[in-house]
Specification:
The protein has 17 helices and 15 strands. By secondary structure, the chain is of the alpha/beta class. Helix 2 links the parallel strand 2 and strand 3. Helix 3 crosses helix 4, helix 8 runs parallel beside helix 9 and helix 11 packs across helix 14. The C terminus is likely disordered.
Length: 420
């Protein structure tokens, strides 16, 4: 027999502008089994995420969160902790926690899932005060600045606030204290393989951006920020462009937090190299499946930090051949060493060589694209993603009832206690 009513799970988001974290929230809330779960997404303001959730039939509440100060300050070439910001942020978090606790009291959810650093603290504190199980969904590496003080502080708080922790990459799990590992589960992000697929038509995007139909397009999708490595890609493309007039570079994305310093740097580099007509800046796009369909090769150039990035998973699902920097987040998505063409991190020559190899070899592009599509559909489809997440959610509920010693492997045997 099924439970009388689905369990209400509240997702506490730190942002409403769409990025990888927000897309993962949307996908999960949309694909949860509604016979077991009733999802509610809490956004700090109206934005793309709140609108997308409503369009998908997911309940949304807007609950304003304060904008926290940066917890570090740059001194010369170094960043040092800012104790004034820590104190001010602590006060803001206290006020926001009180507001969230009031909402949760009225909503009476069975489970809270937090997304984003500020939400981990807000949601964790509010949930703990109300004795509601809380799952931290951690999707960013924890800063190792200032001798690891941020990582240690995060690990210390993680001992007390979350019931369970989901991380979307092994490298994040490795940052957490060993004593927490029994409560940590690695779940790579999922992608809608029925929406991102190889048979889409990207011709309208090409016409819009002035890209000839017979050009070969190297594409990159990501926020315009230094650790995404678009400057390396432009440098590598410059030598390819000199040799082949038929190749175009398409950069899709916008600056982070409205900081356009890096974007201006990229534009200046393109101008200095005389590539204004060969490099297309498309900005943020809502039609990503068609944008990816306009590409022939996907270049993933993040130099750090990215764990199961949705841009890369989307390109894989579209069957694009992948050329990427060899970071841990890239390796984790590969089933075999020959699924992507990898270049050493930050190596412009190696990146240029890998791109050139795949551009001139039709059979290589086809083989890499088929391998990428297969890996996406088998390992990173949304059905698997939601099922793995639901298992952790159920474990958190059982852990609250039975004590934190409850293990994921015990969930199948004990799940009937919550579903009958």
């Amino acid at each position: 027999m099924q439970s009388k009513a689905p369990k209400t799970v509240v997702f506490v988001e730190a942002a409403a502008a769409m990025g990888g974290v927000q897309y993962s929230t949307l996908y999960l809330a949309r694909y949860l089994d509604r016979t077991w779960w009733n999802p509610i997404v809490v956004c700090p303001q109206e934005g793309d995420l709140s609108r997308a959730c409503r369009d998908s039939g997911v309940e949304v509440r807007v609950l304003e969160q304060p904008r926290l100060w940066s917890t570090s300050v740059r001194v010369g070439m170094h960043r040092l902790p800012n104790p004034f910001a820590w104190a001010w942020d602590a006060w803001l978090i206290r006020l926001a926690t009180k507001r969230l606790r009031s909402f949760l009291t009225k909503c009476a959810p069975d489970l809270v899932v937090t997304k984003g650093l500020s939400s981990h603290f807000l949601g964790g504190l509010a949930s703990r005060g109300l004795h509601i199980p809380c799952v931290w969904h951690v999707q960013d590496l924890i800063s190792e600045r200032t001798f690891g003080i941020y990582r240690r502080a995060f690990g210390w708080v993680a001992r007390y606030l979350p019931t369970r922790i989901i991380v979307d990459g092994k490298s994040i799990e490795d940052q957490l204290p060993q004593s927490l590992r029994q409560r940590v589960t690695v779940i790579h992000n999922g992608i809608d393989t029925s929406n991102f697929r190889p048979d889409l038509d990207g011709s309208s995007v090409r016409r819009e951006l002035g890209i000839p139909s017979d050009s070969l397009v190297i594409g990159n999708v990501g926020r315009l920020t230094p650790w995404k490595g678009q400057h390396y890609l432009i440098e590598a493309f410059a030598s390819i462009a000199n040799e082949d007039p038929n190749v175009i570079l398409l950069l899709v994305g916008s600056p982070v937090f409205d900081n356009d310093t890096y974007q201006r740097r990229l534009l200046n580099t393109v101008t200095q190299l005389g590539l204004e007509h060969r490099v297309k800046f498309a900005g943020y796009r809502h039609d990503m499946p068609e944008v990816l369909a306009a590409m022939d090769v996907f270049a993933f150039t993040s130099v750090e930090k990215d764990t199961s990035p949705l841009a890369l998973l989307s390109a894989m699902s579209c069957g694009l051949p992948i050329v990427a920097f060899d970071i841990t987040g890239t390796r984790e998505l590969m089933a075999t060493d020959d699924q992507f063409l990898l270049a050493p991190v930050g190596d412009v020559v190696g990146l240029r060589r890998a791109l050139a190899n795949v551009l001139v070899d039709d059979k290589l592009r086809q083989r890499l694209g088929l391998a990428a599509r297969k890996q996406a559909t088998v390992q990173f489809n949304l059905e698997k993603y939601s099922a793995r997440s639901e298992q952790v959610f159920m474990s958190a509920l059982l852990g609250q009832q039975l004590g934190d010693s409850t293990n994921l492997c015990e969930v199948p045997a004990a799940a009937s206690e919550l579903r009958i």
